[in-house]
């Protein structure tokens, strides 16, 4: 875990480098462990709708391509929407029960740093009742993440070795 106090930009740059250095073998193995933990870390039986970020594999993100099949194995009625936001895209008007969110860095208070566009913070501010879950590798945890008033903390972060809950 990173214990050095850094600003958002420095943390973002450092953790992009760390994630870029991951091997394809680690990404695949850790993603499988994360999805197995995600399957049991939450009660999916009463969930009606889930928004899932569409991962970018060349960035070594946790692969979300099989989240839908995992969710349907828990609750076939779950409606799954994949999102691939960019800064100019409007946020969905639909209210979701669960939102699975990308991140570069998180801390034990479940604050996160993404890629810096602010799209997810704008989206999450319109989803007050949604459970917000981040998927990350354990090496993406920092001691502290600087926050601003518009930053929305997560309710849970699932890594390959631990589930963090608010």
Summarize the structure.
By secondary structure, the protein is α/β, with parallel strands linked by helices. Helices cover 28% and strands 17% of the residues. The chain has helices at 8-20, 24-41, 67-74, 119-125, and strands spanning 49-53, 79-83, 98-101, 105-106, 112-113, 131-135, 156-158, 163-165.
Question: Which key phrases capture this entry?
Answer:
166 residues, alpha/beta, Rossmann fold, six-stranded mixed β-sheet, two-stranded antiparallel sheet, 4 helices, 17% strand
What does this entry look like structurally?
- There is one protein chain.
- By secondary structure, this protein is α/β, with parallel strands linked by helices.
- It has a single domain (8-165), classed as 3-Layer(aba) Sandwich (Rossmann fold).
- It contains 4 helices and 8 strands.
- The protein has helices at 8-20, 24-41, 67-74, 119-125, and strands at 49-53, 79-83, 98-101, 105-106, 112-113, 131-135, 156-158, 163-165.
- It has a 6-stranded mixed sheet, with helices on one face. Strands 4-5 form a two-stranded antiparallel ribbon.
CATH class: Alpha Beta
Rg from C-alpha positions?
A: 15 Å
Distance between the termini: 19 Å
Number of helices: 4
Strand content: 15-25%
Summarize the helices and strands and which ones pair or pack:
Layout (H helix, E strand, L loop, with lengths): L7 H13 L3 H18 L7 E5 L13 H8 L4 E5 L14 E4 L3 E2 L5 E2 L5 H7 L5 E5 L20 E3 L4 E3 L1
Parallel strand pairs: 1-2, 1-3, 3-6, 6-7
Antiparallel strand pairs: 4-5, 7-8
């Amino acid at each position: 875990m990173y214990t050095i106090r850094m600003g958002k930009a420095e943390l973002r740059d450092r953790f992009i480098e760390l994630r870029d250095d991951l091997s394809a073998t680690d990404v695949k193995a850790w993603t499988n462990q994360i999805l197995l933990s995600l399957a049991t870390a939450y009660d999916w039986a009463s969930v009606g709708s889930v928004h899932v970020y569409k991962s970018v594999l060349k960035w070594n993100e946790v692969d979300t391509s099989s989240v839908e099949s995992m969710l349907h194995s828990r609750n076939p009625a779950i409606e799954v929407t994949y999102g691939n936001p960019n800064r100019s895209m409007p946020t969905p008007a639909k209210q979701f029960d669960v939102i699975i969110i990308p991140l570069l860095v998180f801390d034990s208070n479940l604050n996160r740093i993404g890629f810096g566009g602010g799209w997810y913070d704008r989206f999450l501010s319109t989803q007050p009742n949604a459970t917000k879950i981040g998927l990350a590798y354990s090496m993406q945890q920092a001691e502290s993440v600087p926050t601003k008033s518009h930053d929305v903390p997560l309710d849970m972060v699932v890594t390959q070795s631990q589930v963090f809950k608010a």
